[in-house]
Every structure is written in C-alpha cells, then in structure tokens.
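Quick start: read one record
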Amino acid sequence: MKSLCLFSICAGLLAQNAFAQASPAIPPESTPKEVLDLIRAAAEALQNKDVAGFLDRCDSAMPGYQMLDYYLEGLAARDNVISTVEIVSDKRDKDDENRRMLILDWTLNIDSEPLRRAIVKVTVEKQGKKWRFTALDPDPADFFKPPA
C-alpha cells in the first residue's frame, strides 16, 4: 500500500510539473469511501493491465462499453502504463442518493508517448452492494485509445 501511495504522489508531481498547474482540489469529504475505492481500483487496474478488473467496475450497459473494452485490451498490450486519477468535484444526484456525478483529473503515461491528461466526467451508481461507472465522458475513444 505504501508503494502505491508513493507512486501516486510521484506520478501526481510529475503530472503537476508537466502541466505547470496546481494540484486539483482534494475530494469533498462527502465522497463515500466506496466511491473513492472504485476510482482507485480502476486506476490500479489500468496500471496492472487488468482489463477484466477495470471492466468489472463498469456497467456493461454503459454507452461506449464495447469500445472501452477494445481500447483497454490495446493498452494492456503496451509495456508501461501509469494511471493516476484525482477527484476535482463530486455531486450527489438530488433525486437518487445512489448516483453521483464526478469530475476526474485523469492522467495516463503510456510507454514513451507524451503524457495524456484529461478532465473525465463520470457517473457512478450503486448497483446492489457495488458502485460502478455507468457513464464516461469524453467517449473512451478520446482518452483510452492506445497509441498507434
């Protein structure tokens, strides 16, 4: 666990230096631990080339799911993928306490390619006992597409 935290801190500092911007805001205290765990596990799954582990955290009915699967398989074939995610904002759906809309600052460092950084809007919903991604914006094609 220590190495993951250190790695995330180092990767975050690299991203901060690369973009010469201040670090995004600390996630709101109201973000449930299970949602934080979902986001952390998704970032780790990308780094560990665990496509099934990432997709297990997504609703298979989510728009773009099949394309996301295809692109994650391509990323898993790369030698080195570093993924970090920070929560910029978190809003609970006023009509449904089991639905949240988050804005994430997501970085991907793939092999020796230029660092990718995007603001990714996600919707997460509690389905049964698990939180899952139910929407990603921008389309996975824009951000998760492996380099040619």
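Strands lie at 81-93, 96-110, 116-127, 130-137.
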